[in-house]
Amino acid sequence: MRVVMFGYQTWGHRTLQALLDSEHDVVLVVTHPKSEHAYEKIWSDSVADLAEEHGVPVLIRNRPDDEELFSRLKEADPDIIVANNWRTWIPPRIFGLPRHGTLNVHDSLLPKYAGFSPLIWALINGESEVGVTAHMMNDELDAGDIVRQEAVPVGPTDTATDLFHKTVDLIAPVTIGALDLIASGRTEFTKQDRSLASFFHKRSTEDIRIDWSWPAEDLERLVRAQSDPYPSAFTFHRGKRLEVLAAVVSQGRYGGTPGRVFYREGDGVVIVAGADARTGRNHGLAITRVRTEDGRELPATEYFTSMGGYLTSHP
């Protein structure tokens, strides 16, 4: 099939590479300009560079809503558009233009975790598996019929970075497998159960601020979700920002006020956690490694020279 590809960052790069390695003909690529947004500088392999290396024409757009782009798409005469990590709305006259419509590739197990940062949100929420879905695009974001979907398990110590590497390797088989089904003449695919749908927003600074009223189990997953190269989860100690780089759920149960710097346990320092921590039934969060406001990275047992005092969400 003649394919136009819409994509950005490493997800788009992997998709384009899979298409270039396939029997399909990539006739045009549309990608976003480079961004200084913290999350868009991560996994930032260039779609434009890869296309140009293979002699594929490239258009750079924030939004696909201008007449020049529409004319170029009509001239390209695609059988299908394939999109992955396209960050803005694609209007119906674009996604409905090709003979077979538009196939969108999304790094979640739709219908759950539509929208942005699905791996991070899924890890924070304790999902047992994540994956990649190829679905037909329609008027509603990430809501079209599922053509192909593959899952991988979430391990007990997996970080968001681990999940990225697990799922990015699914892009090629999911994308090309879906295209093969479409090329074979299949037109009926799996409807999404919209009663199970969830939609998540982009991550921001507010989303990585530690709230000590959360249970320790949730905070431990937040720390893993915000692992390098993502911005680290943070709290404040004595009015200064403190990034939490590594932590585990405590072995013991610790009662008191959430945020209290309480007890050395193994290689960590336990912080009281959970809205009902006063009951003494909760585990705490044992912080093992931190980064200070001036960039020093050190074990928590070296940073916390004495017990007592509080970690807080704000200075």
UniProtKB/TrEMBL annotation:
<dbReference type="InterPro" id="IPR011034">
    <property type="entry name" value="Formyl_transferase-like_C_sf"/>
</dbReference>
<keyword id="KW-0808">Transferase</keyword>
<dbReference type="Pfam" id="PF02911">
    <property type="entry name" value="Formyl_trans_C"/>
</dbReference>
<dbReference type="GO" id="GO:0004479">
    <property type="term" value="F:methionyl-tRNA formyltransferase activity"/>
</dbReference>
<dbReference type="InterPro" id="IPR002376">
    <property type="entry name" value="Formyl_transf_N"/>
</dbReference>
<protein>
    <submittedName>
        <fullName>Methionyl-tRNA formyltransferase</fullName>
        <ecNumber>2.1.2.9</ecNumber>
    </submittedName>
</protein>
<feature type="domain" description="Formyl transferase N-terminal">
    <location>
        <begin position="1"/>
        <end position="169"/>
    </location>
</feature>
<feature type="domain" description="Formyl transferase C-terminal">
    <location>
        <begin position="204"/>
        <end position="306"/>
    </location>
</feature>
<dbReference type="InterPro" id="IPR005793">
    <property type="entry name" value="Formyl_trans_C"/>
</dbReference>
<dbReference type="InterPro" id="IPR036477">
    <property type="entry name" value="Formyl_transf_N_sf"/>
</dbReference>
<dbReference type="Pfam" id="PF00551">
    <property type="entry name" value="Formyl_trans_N"/>
</dbReference>
